[in-house]
């Protein structure tokens, strides 16, 4: 297979690119209007889990989507988190150009600033496979094809939707507990906190801010969550500080405590007893759709791993956790 370094590089980092831009897909639904309709080019693509075939050269000036395998469940809406993978084919020759590295995750959107891959996800369903016919520029950005492909060259991208889950907690608001920070939530779901002359708690405390109605998280479940983290102020007049992030033992970077919101990507956590006690107790028994506030004193906190997140093992930390799904 002829190598196309620039485009394959774009594939390798596609999860990062599309997440930073934060998709409508395939079959129309009364509850969801797709961003892209089926067209003459996408209809002639025959796609399976491992291959795609179509008459060549295939040319399309606008993005088109056609379904080759129906999924099930509710259509993906703007803001939902989506796990998916994709393979790319040269519209001119039909040759395979590579595939995404494992499963990618992003927030679905109908923003015109997003790539066509991300935009195509909106209105799809879990388990669905569809063919997206699009230009290099629309799918990966201006100049992504390097010297091998022009921006307007046609690509065929076969997308497999693995899973969908909530993008933010959707539970019913609950009354706050005395002595706990107040949680303020933006329209997109990102939380902030306010501490009003409260004494620093010395014991582990949890409070359900939004009560979800989904399945209950049990021990050994893998939970999809978004979180934000702060350290408790060192003085009564101080303000909470976002975890600044740090470095893992292997040298990899741990982003700041709001990273799951700024990148719009949920993370997966296996709920086991080896987690920090505060995090474990906050997740165990929580229902999908809930938002949980937890204040964690040092003895129930992250210990030696605290430095990875940019705070000290003597800090009292605050987390707001959105429970979005169970793998």
Low-confidence stretches: 13-30
CATH topology of the largest domain: Chitinase A, domain 3
* Name of the CATH class of the largest domain: Alpha Beta
Structural class: alpha+beta
Number of strands: 19
Number of helical runs?
8
Distance between the termini: 36 Å
The overall average pLDDT, rounded, is 90
Description:
With 327 residues, the chain is of the alpha+beta class. It folds into two domains: 5-165, Chitinase A, domain 3 (Roll); 172-326, Chitinase A, domain 3 (Roll). The protein is built from eight helices and 19 strands. The protein is elongated. It starts with a helix and ends with a strand.
In short:
With 327 residues, the chain is α+β, with helices and mostly antiparallel strands. The protein folds into two domains: 5-165, Chitinase A, domain 3 (Roll), CATH 3.10.50; 172-326, Chitinase A, domain 3 (Roll). It has helices at residues 5-12, 14-21, 40-43, 116-120, 136-140, 259-262, 277-283, 306-309; strands spanning 46-47, 52-53, 64-69, 81-90, 96-99, 104-107, 129-135, 154-165, 172-173, 182-185, 191-194, 205-211, 222-231, 241-242, 246-247, 253-254, 267-270, 291-296, 317-326.
